[in-house]
Amino acid sequence: MKSENSRAAYALAVLFVINTMNFFDRVIGGALGEPIRREFNLSDSALGALGTAFTLLYAFVGIPLGRWSDRAPRKLILAGAVFLWSALTAVSGLTRTYWQLFATRLGVGVGEAACAPAATSLIGDLYPPSKRARAMSVFMMGLPIGIALSYFVGSYVAHSYGWRAAFFVAGIPGVLAAIAALFITEPVRGTKETAPAKVQTGSPWKTLLSIPTLWWLIASGALHNFNMYALARFSRRC
Question: pLDDT under 70 in the chain at which residues?
C-alpha cells in the first residue's frame, strides 16, 4: 500500500508541474505582448489573433485528444504533449516574423490540449473517490501558480535579456517534466472505483448534453475565459 501511495504521490507531483508549465507557457505570450508588438509593429487585432487562434484550436483538438486518452497510455500522451508544447515554446524565441510566431503558438495549443484530459483521467485511476477532489485541487493549483510565474519570470527575463530569451527559459522545465512523466506508473483503468461501472448505452454526447448543469458550466467557462484571456493579452497595453 505504501508503495502504491508513493507512486500516486509521484504521479500527482509530476502532473502538478506539468499543469504549472501548461499555464506558464500558455500565458507567456501575453506577458511578452508589448515587446513582441514593438518588434513586429503589430496592431491590437494582430496581437489578439495570437490568443484567439490558440484558444479556438485548443478547444477543437481537445475532443479527439480526450478520446485518445480513453484508449492509449496516458503517461505517454502527456510526455509527448509536454515535450511538443515546450519545444515549440522555445522555438517561438527563434521566430523572425509574425506568421512564424503565429504558427508556433498554434502548435503549443495543440500540445497543451492533451494535458487536461490525460491528467484528469490519470488522477481518476490513481485516487479513490474519497481522495480524488483533494488530488484534483493539487493538480489545479498549477493554474494560478503557472500564470503568476509566467508574468514574474517572463517579465524579468524579457527586461534583462529580451523577449526571445524568455521563451527559451519557458521551454526548458517542460522538457524535464516530459521526461519525468515517462516514469509515472500507468494505473489500471477503473480499479479505484467503489461501485461497479454502469454500462453506457447510446451516444455519450447526448448523455452529457442532457445535463443542465453542464450547459451552465460551458457558458460560464466561455465568459470567464473570454474576459481573463483578454485581460492577460491587453492589460499591459492599458
Answer: 1-2, 195-202, 232-238
